[in-house]
Amino acid sequence: MEFGTLIFTKPQRAITDPKLAEDYGYSHAWIPDSHMIWGDVWACMALAAVNTTKIKLATGVAIATNRIPPVTVEAIGTINEIAPGRVVLGFGTGHTGRRVMGLPPVKHAVFREEVRVIHDLLRDGEAIYNTEGMSKKIRYIHRDRRFISLDGPIPFYVAANGPKTIALAGEFGDGCVTTGVTTPDRVETVKKQLQAGAAQANRKLPEKFPIVTLTHVCVLQSGEDLDSPRVKTMCGPWVMANLHAFAAGYARAESLPAPVRPVFQAYMDYVSKMKTPRAERYLELHRGHCSYVEPSEWKFVTPESIECCTIVGPREKVVEQIRALEKAGLSQIFLNPPMDGFGDCIGEIAREVIERV
Q1: Who's near 52: CB < 8 A, 6+ residues apart?
Q2: What distance in Å separates the CA atoms of residue 249 and residue 173, rounded to the nearest whole number?
Q3: Which of 86, 160, 270, 278 could be 165's S-S partner, Cβ–Cβ 3.0 to 4.6 Å?
């Protein structure tokens, strides 16, 4: 099992945090693309590239329609020229990357077309690009001058949660990034959806096709329970990111386990009383996203919500669960540590989990 970590797209943190993760033995540094929340993904990837030597640098994830496909590929190709063989292009329809502007995720047909163009550009350096009512061949014309490098080739991971989008990863991708996969049964479901997409392209996926899940891990100390301040601090940002997603309509509340539904309902009542008008609530809903917990929202970080959203428990239980996920076919766990306490969190997981899996 590989382990990656979210890297906060703040320039100063992009200099230090990927190196710290590299030193702790993490395989991937995932750098998000949400321009209304954090700093620029590509500037931060460049800083990470020149301050590390081994860790893979991945967009976590670049968002469709926020840039046109040839610009996205040019950007990852530029980072690959700085850190050859150490980059991964993760690409998705957008949660906060679009919802914080009041926009829905990209429609499937639009996303599929962008995925196709990016796939072709990464593979061949050229593609047929349909835009503005025209269909044009495009090509990077100075590759010999090494302004960018598409050598490697650069792995292309499609980010997806729904079956149709996961199928696109099987059709076009070199891997799949999904969210909240914490059981072997869920891994098997994702694998079937990937195979369905591969069948559309008459493609045979490798036996160990990379499947990455964004979630969080927390090991309980001796005598510690889920309501301890330390556990809440370590898990809070990821718990609230999940509640933000449900409140924004990204996922269905019916899919929540019964014990956490009262917490969700209490959160929805809280959202209904936010100061912003309903039509502009997206401006307030995602405050702290994946980074910190708003003071008024700590009450929603409960034992039930922590257990629902994370891989948590005594060390032996956590290690056993992760081994079962690996056996089922999960390749990597992509963690969401808190911004404050980042080093303590990833260090603890390195010692308690990574060294034992």
Answers
A1: 18, 19, 22, 29, 83, 86
A2: 26
A3: 160
Q: What is the pTM of this model?
A: 0.97
* Residue 148 burial (CB count, 10 A): 19
Q: Which two tokens stand for residue 142?
A: 């100075």
Contacts 24+ apart (CB under 8 A), 131-140: 131/68, 138/70, 140/74, 140/77
Q: What six digits make up the tokens of 72?
A: 């996205």
Give the Cα separation of 171 and 198 in Å (integer). Answer: 4
Burial 81-120 (b: 16+ CB within 10 A, else e): bbbeebbbbbbbbbbbbbbbeeeebbeeeebbbbbbbbbb
Say what the pLDDT of residue 16 is: 98
* pLDDT over 70 percentage in the chain: 100
- Give the C-alpha separation, 43 to 15, whole Å: 11
CA angle 338, 273, 276 (to 5 degrees): 80
Contact call for residues 212 and 157 (beta carbons, < 8 A): yes
Closest CA to 97 of 160, 34, 30: 34
Alpha carbon distance 153, 215 (integer Å): 27
How far are the Cα atoms of 79, 96, 124, 268 from residue 151, in angstroms, in the given order?
12, 31, 10, 48
